[in-house]
Design a protein that fits this description.
The complex is a heterodimer of chains A (about 550) and B (about 350). Chain A has about 550 residues and is α+β, with helices and mostly antiparallel strands. Chain A is about 40% helix and about 15% strand. The chains are: A alpha+beta (about 550), B mainly alpha (about 350).
Chain lengths: ~550, ~350
C-alpha cells in the first residue's frame, strides 16, 4: 500500500512523471539535471550513490524496467546512463546519468536494483572501460578475456597489435569438480553445437544429466555494429546496418528502431502513408521472424529437421516473397529512409495486394496445422509445460521484453504502450500468456502471428483505398543531417524479440557521437541460467530455443 | 516342418556337402555372404537414398533428385564420398576399443539375421540357420549392439560421447525387457522359440486355422491380429531399441551433438551408420517374423513379402522421426520402467492365462 502511494507521488494527475517529485525523492544524491529527448527527467547522480538511487526509483517511484545501460567517454569524464522505464507505462522515463572521473573511472554498480545491469555493466566495462564497484562478476563480455584496451574509449589504439601469449588464455577445458559434496562435470556447449542457433558458448556444469550451472559466453559474433554506426552519416549510411542485427528476417523491425530514434533526434516528420507501409512491412517481418522462432524451437525439441521446421520455413518463404516484392530484397532490406520509405508499393499494386491477401487468407489454416502438429502434441507438452519457468518478477528484473516477457504474464508491448508508426490507429491486441514456461512462449508467438496478420490486413485495406495524390512516401529531409550538439535520445520499438532500442548522442556533426543498441536478445539471454539451473540438459536446450535469441543481435 | 536352410541348399547344389564338416562350413559362409549382401544392399539403399526421400516426403521437400533417375545414383556417389573421407582419430581415444566398437555395432545387427526366416525365392529358402532357441538368439545378439555403443562412447574420450553411451545403456536396459517380454507372449501362443515354428503358427494351410473369414477372404492368424496390444507394445519398445524418435536419446543431435558417435568419422562413421540401419531392419525383421507372419503372404514369393514388411517397419520409424518430438531422458526411463514394463508383464500373464485356459 505504501509502495503504491509513494509511486503515485512521482506521477502527476495525468499519470506522467513529475520531475520535481523525482528530484525530491533523490535529494542530495542528485548533482545536476540534463535534457534527454525521451526522458521526463535526466538526473546526474553521484557515482557512489547509484545503488541507492536506482533502488529508490525502483521501489518508490515504480521504475521497474532498466532498459539499457549506456557508457560513453567525453573529453573530461566517463559517463554511464541507466535508462529506466515503467513496465506499466514505458512513456514514463527517467535517465540516471552517472559521471566517472577521467583518471579513475569507477562508479557504483546497479546490480542490487536491476539484475540486468550485470551484463550491461560488463559490456560497458569491456568496451568503454568504466569499472563498477560491487559488481558481482566484472569480466569482459564481448571481447576475449585477454583483450588489451577498451575499444570504444578515446585513447584506444586500434593499430596496436594484440599480443597475447597462449598461457594467458582461459583454458576452455576446465577440470571437472570432484569432492565430497559434489561431483560435477564441466561441459562446453558450443560455440559450435547444433542447438545454439549461431555461435553461443554455454559453459555448463552438469551434475549427471542435471544442469548445475550455466554461463552463456557471448561475443563470437561481435561485429562492432555500434562503432560502425558511429562512423556513418545519419541520413544514409547507418540504415543498412540494422538489417544485420536480428538477421532472422526481422530486418524492417530493426530499421524501424533506427528510423524512430533518428527521426526523434533530428525532429523529422513521417507522412502517414509511409507510416502505414512501414507498419505493414514491420509486421510481415514479425511473422517471418516468429515462424523462424517456432520452427527452430521445434527443431530443438523434436531433435531433427522434422516436418514442423520445414512447414515453418515453407510459410516464412511466402512472407519473404511478399517482402521481396515490396523492398527488392529477401533479408537485408534497407527499405526505410529517414522520413519515410525508399519507394512506394510495387506496380501493379493489385498484384501485391492479392499476394498479401492470399497469404493472410491461408494463414489461419496453417496456424491450425501448427497447433495440431506442435502445441496439441502430448509429447511436446510433456517436454515444454513447466520447464524453463520465468517468474514475472525475474523477467522484469532482467529487463526481459517481447514474447518472452509476455509469456510470463508481463503485459508490455512498445507498440501499444509507447505508440509509434500507425499502430495506435489499428485494431489489434497484445497477447499475454500466464504459463511462464517454454510452452507459453510458443503459444504466445503463434498468437502474435495472428495479431500481426490482423494489423497487416488493416494496413492493406488502408493502402488500397489511399487516394493516389496523397501517396507521399518521404517527407523533405535535408541531405545532410546535423542534429544539435549534445542532443541525446533513447527510442525503442517492438522488435521481433522485444524492446529494440537505440540511444544516440549527437555531437554536432553528421555522424552520431555515441550509438548504442539495446538488444532485446541480450537482456533475454541473460535469464538462461535462471531458467535452466536444476533442470535437465534437454530442458536447457528447450529454454535456450524458447528465448529465441539471434546471436547477431546479442553480440552486435 | 523341416525346410532346407540356405547352407544346406548350397551344400546340396554345389556338392560341398560331400566334403563333410569343412564343406558345410564353406556352404554356411557362402550363405551368410548372400544374406549379408542382401541386408547391406537394403541398408545401402535406405541410408543415402530412401531415408532422405521418405523424410522429404514427410516434410514437404524434394530431396535427392539430381543424380540418376529419382536421384538413385546418389547411392554410389555417397558411398565413394563417405569412404574417401579422412579418418580422424582423436589423440586421447582408447585405441582398440575405439576401433572395435563400430564393428560390434554393425556386426551384432548382421548376426541377428542368421536366424531370420526371410522366405523363399525361386524355391530357395533364405534362412541360414533355424536353431530351436532362434528367438532368444536374435534378442541376445541384438543386445550386443549396446556393448558397442558403450565402447564407442567410453573410448571416444569425449563428454558428449560419454553421455550418449550412458544414455544408451539406460535406454536399452529399460526397453529390452518389455521387448523380450512382449515377444515371449507370442512364444506362448506358438509354443516354440524356433523361428520357423513361430512363422508356421501364423501361416495359413498346414493345419493352421484362419483367424476370421470375411466374405471369402481369410485373415491369417498373424499375432499382430491375435494380440494387437502386444504388437503395439512391441513396436514402441522396438523404436526405443533402435533409437529412433521419440526415443533417439543416445544421439540427440540438439542436446549432445551426436552422442556416442560424435568423434567418429569416415569409415568408422559409416560402420556405425550402417549398424543403425541394420538394427532398424533387424527390428523390422523380428517384428515381421513374430507378429506379421514372417514371409507369409498371398501371390508374391515369401522373400518379397518379407522385404515389404521390413521396409514397412522402416517407413514407420522414419515417420515417427519426422513427426514426433523427442522425450526427455528421465521421461523415457519412467515410461520404460513404469509404463512399458508393467504393461508387458500384464500382457504376458494374460496371454499365459488365456493360452492355459484355451489349450
Amino acid at each position: 500500500m505504501s509502495l503504491e502511494k509513494s509511486r503515485d507521488d512521482a506521477l502527476d494527475a495525468a499519470g506522467d512523471v513529475d520531475p520535481q517529485a523525482i528530484l525530491d525523492l533523490l535529494g542530495d544524491r542528485v548533482l545536476d539535471t540534463e535534457e534527454h529527448l525521451n526522458a521526463d527527467i535526466a538526473v546526474v547522480v553521484r557515482p557512489d550513490a547509484v545503488e541507492e538511487t536506482l533502488l529508490a526509483l525502483r521501489d518508490e517511484a515504480g521504475f521497474d524496467h532498466c532498459s539499457l545501460v549506456t557508457a560513453q567517454e567525453y573529453e573530461d569524464r566517463y559517463e554511464s546512463i541507466y535508462h529506466l522505464k515503467q513496465y506499466d507505462d514505458p512513456t514514463n522515463e527517467v535517465s540516471v546519468v552517472v559521471p566517472a572521473a577521467k583518471d579513475d573511472p569507477v562508479s557504483e554498480s546497479g546490480n542490487a536494483a536491476y539484475r540486468t545491469c550485470d551484463w550491461h555493466e560488463r559490456e560497458a566495462y569491456d568496451l568503454v572501460g568504466i569499472e563498477y564497484e560491487n559488481h558481482p562478476d566484472l569480466r569482459r563480455i564481448l571481447m576475449p578475456e585477454t583483450w588489451q584496451g577498451h575499444p570504444l574509449s578515446m585513447d584506444y589504439d586500434q593499430d596496436r597489435p594484440q599480443v597475447v601469449t597462449l598461457g594467458e588464455h582461459d583454458n576452455p577445458l576446465k577440470d571437472d569438480h570432484r569432492d565430497e559434496d559434489s561431483d560435477t562435470m564441466f561441459l562446453n556447449i558450443g560455440p559450435h553445437h547444433p542447438a545454439t542457433h549461431g555461435v553461443l558458448h554455454a559453459k555448463t556444469v552438469l551434475d549427471g544429466e542435471t544442469v548445475a550451472d550455466v554461463d552463456p559466453d557471448i561475443g563470437y559474433l561481435h561485429r562492432c555494429e555500434e562503432q560502425m554506426a558511429q562512423n556513418g552519416t545519419y541520413r544514409h549510411q547507418i540504415m543498412p546496418y540494422p538489417d544485420r542485427w536480428d538477421y532472422g528476417s526481422a530486418g524492417l523491425l530493426n530499421e524501424y528502431a533506427y528510423a524512430r530514434a533518428a527521426e526523434d533526434l533530428a525532429d523529422i516528420e513521417v507522412p502517414e502513408y509511409a507510416q502505414v507501409i512501414r507498419t505493414m512491412g514491420a509486421e510481415l517481418c514479425r511473422i517471418a521472424a516468429h515462424m523462424l522462432a517456432v520452427g527452430t524451437f521445434a527443431l530443438d525439441v523434436y531433435g531433427d529437421f522434422t516436418a514442423i521446421f520445414q512447414y515453418a520455413f515453407r510459410d516464412r518463404e511466402v512472407v519473404q516473397n511478399i517482402l521481396e516484392d515490396l523492398t527488392g530484397q529477401r533479408m537485408m532490406f534497407n527499405y526505410f529512409r529517414l522520413g519515410g520509405v525508399a519507394w512506394d508499393l510495387p506496380e501493379p499494386r493489385e498484384d501485391f495486394f492479392e499476394l498479401t491477401r492470399d497469404f493472410l487468407d491461408g494463414l489461419p489454416g496453417k496456424l491450425e496445422e501448427y497447433h495440431d502438429l506442435i502445441t496439441s502434441n502430448e509429447i511436446f507438452q510433456l517436454r515444454c509445460v513447466g520447464t524453463g519457468v520465468v517468474e514475472p518478477e525475474v523477467a522484469k528484473s532482467y529487463g526481459a521484453t517481447g514474447p518472452v516477457a509476455r509469456a510470463s504474464g508481463v503485459d508490455y508491448d512498445v507498440r501499444r504502450d509507447d505508440p509509434y508508426g500507425y499502430y495506435d490507429e489499428l485494431d489489434w491486441d497484445v497477447v499475454t500468456e500466464d504459463g511462464k514456461d517454454n510452452y507459453a512462449r510458443v503459444l504466445c508467438r503463434l498468437q502474435e502471428v495472428e495479431e500481426s496478420a490482423k494489423i497487416i490486413e488493416q494496413c492493406v485495406d488502408l493502402l488500397e483505398e489511399w487516394p493516389e495524390e496523397e501517396r507521399t512516401i518521404q517527407s523533405n529531409v535535408p541531405r545532410t543531417l546535423k542534429p544539435e550538439n549534445d542532443t541525446e535520445t533513447y527510442r525503442a520499438v517492438e522488435g521481433a524479440k522485444g524492446e529494440l532500442g537505440i540511444y544516440m548522442r549527437a555531437d554536432g556533426t553528421d555522424k552520431p557521437g555515441r550509438f548504442k543498441i539495446r538488444s532485446p536478445c541480450y537482456s533475454n539471454l541473460q535469464m538462461l541460467p535462471e531458467m535452466a539451473q536444476g533442470e535437465y540438459i534437454p530442458d536447457l536446450i528447450a529454454s535456450l530455443g524458447s528465448l529465441d535469441i539471434i546471436l547477431g543481435e546479442v553480440d552486435r | 516342418m523341416a525346410t532346407q536352410t540356405l547352407p544346406e541348399f548350397i551344400a546340396d547344389v554345389t556338392g560341398l556337402g560331400t566334403y563333410g564338416v569343412g564343406g558345410e562350413i564353406v556352404a554356411a559362409i557362402i550363405g551368410a555372404g548372400i544374406v549379408g549382401t542382401i541386408m547391406l544392399t537394403y541398408t545401402g539403399i535406405a541410408g543415402p537414398w530412401a531415408k532422405r526421400k521418405i523424410t522429404a516426403a514427410f516434410t514437404d521437400r524434394y530431396a535427392v533428385n539430381r543424380m540418376g533417375p529419382f536421384g538413385l545414383l546418389t547411392i554410389p556417389a555417397d558411398a565413394v564420398r563417405l569412404l574417401s573421407k579422412e579418418l580422424i582419430i582423436p589423440e586421447n581415444v582408447d585405441r582398440p576399443a575405439f576401433d572395435i566398437a563400430p564393428l560390434i555395432v554393425a556386426g551384432s545387427a548382421l548376426l541377428g539375421f542368421a536366424v531370420i526366416p526371410m522366405g523363399s525365392l525361386f524355391g530357395i529358402n533364405l534362412q541360414i540357420a533355424d536353431p530351436e532357441a532362434g528367438l532368444a538368439f536374435v534378442f541376445a545378439v541384438a543386445s550386443i549392439a549396446t556393448l558397442g555403443l558403450t565402447m564407442a562412447g567410453y573410448a571416444s574420450a569425449n563428454k558428449f560421447s560419454f553421455m550418449g553411451a550412458l544414455r544408451a545403456i539406460a535406454q536399452n536396459i529399460a526397453y529390452e525387457i518389455p521387448l523380450v517380454l512382449t515377444a515371449a507372449s507370442v512364444v506362448l501362443f506358438a509354443g516354440s522359440l524356433q523361428m520357423s515354428e513361430i512363422v508356421a503358427a501364423q501361416t495359413l494351410g498346414g493345419g493352421t486355422e484362419p483367424l476370421l473369414a470375411v466374405a471369402g477372404l481369410e485373415i491369417p492368424p498373424w499375432f499382430a491380429f491375435v494380440n494387437p496390444f502386444a504388437f503395439v507394445l512391441f513396436m514402441i519398445a522396438n523404436l526405443a531399441e533402435v533409437g529412433r524418435n521419440p526415443f533417439d536419446i543416445p544421439e540427440a543431435p540438439t542436446e549432445i551433438v551426436a552422442g556416442y558417435q560424435t568423434e567418429y568419422s569416415s569409415v568408422y562413421f559409416v560402420l556405425i551408420y550402417l549398424g543403425e540401419f541394420l538394427h532398424i531392419f533387424l527390428g523390422g525383421a523380428i517384428a515381421a517374423t513374430v507378429f506379421l507372419g514372417g514371409p507369409a503372404g498371398p501371390i508374391l514369393p515369401g522373400f518379397v513379402w518379407f522385404t515389404i514388411k521390413i521396409w514397412g517397419v522402416f517407413l514407420f520409424t522414419q515417420w515417427a522421426r519426422s513427426a514426433v518430438p523427442r522425450v526427455r531422458i528421465d521421461q523415457l526411463i519412467s515410461i520404460g520402467w513404469k509404463g512399458m514394463l508393467v504393461l508387458s508383464f500384464v500382457n504376458l500373464i494374460l496371454t499365459a492365462v488365456l493360452v492355459g485356459v484355451i489349450v
